[in-house]
Amino acid sequence: MNAPLDMEKAAPAAFYLPHGDECTVFAAAHANRLPVLLKGPTGCGKTRFVTHMANRLARPLYTVACHDDLSAADLIGRYLLKGGETVWVDGPLTRAVREGAICYLDEVVEARKDVTVVLHPLTDDRRILPVDRTGEEIAAAPGFMLVASYNPGYQNILKTLKPSTRQRFVALEFDFPAPEHEVPVVVRESGLEEARVQPLVRLANKLRGLKGQDLEEGVSTRLVVYAATLIATGMPVERAVSVAMVEPLTDDADVKRGLLDLVLAVYG
Ligand code: ADP
Q1: Collapsed DSSP state (helix, strand, coil) of residue 224
Q2: Tell me, what's the pLDDT at 235?
Q3: Global ipTM
Q4: 267 in ligand 1 pocket by Cβ < 6 Å?
Q5: C-alpha 89: how far from its chain's center?
Q6: What atom of ligand 1 comes closest to residue 51's alpha carbon?
Q7: CA angle, 183 as apex, 29 and 188 as ends, to 5°?
Q8: Is 124 buried (19+), middle (13-18) or exposed (0-12) by CB count in 10 A?
Q9: CA of residue 105 to ligand 1 center, whole Å
């Protein structure tokens, strides 16, 4: 049973085109109170997916973009001075735990080590959040779910998830969509007609082929949407592709020339 909720507090409706059974798996994990880990490159639809599912499950969503300075206190809360008084202010994780919301920790490996300590009692069947500062131990309200994402492509030995943490999650793998999925996504997001989106997606896949050789990471669906959006509002194709799909990928002049050759191969 979920905590009663009015739809007004739920995450906003968001268009999401599934590439497999990820919606079914997520809903089953939620129904069974299991946390979910989304693995995949940046800009391939993970955040959109979580927003879509939070709306479908009628849950509020708290999203936290993790960074290397993010500590457990940023998630749990802290005492703040307000009008001469010290008051406790819940952080996003505590709010989600109390309200039975979904808490999405984007790029969780970036966060400081003390964050994982907080996640452990929440991700097993205890489902509690110990708040040391206030002495509280908050039981997660029905409907609460922890979702985390990370990008296994960033090969940073210091920043991988420890097995003891990752083995607490049901994990779903994400990747850039196949062309037959990416084309309708880009059409829908940008408003550009299908015949003009097709070569952009073809180009994106050629650029993705360079990952590991010249590029650290392939061009994201987000960037293809940017390029298509700029084209739809009148920017010449060549310029839009250059600013949205080439420049964001590299600073190296030789690599850039190589990428522009691929652009010519598609559009030339
Ligand atoms: P991530 O969280 O993986 O970095 P996002 O969820 O922000 O990526 O996705 C970037 C953009 O790509 C979204 O804003 C959306 O326009 C588009 N997108 C990617 N995949 C999908 C999909 N399956 N359905 C709808 N939009 C998608």
Answers
A1: helix
A2: 97
A3: 0.99
A4: no
A5: 26
A6: 6
A7: 75
A8: exposed
A9: 16
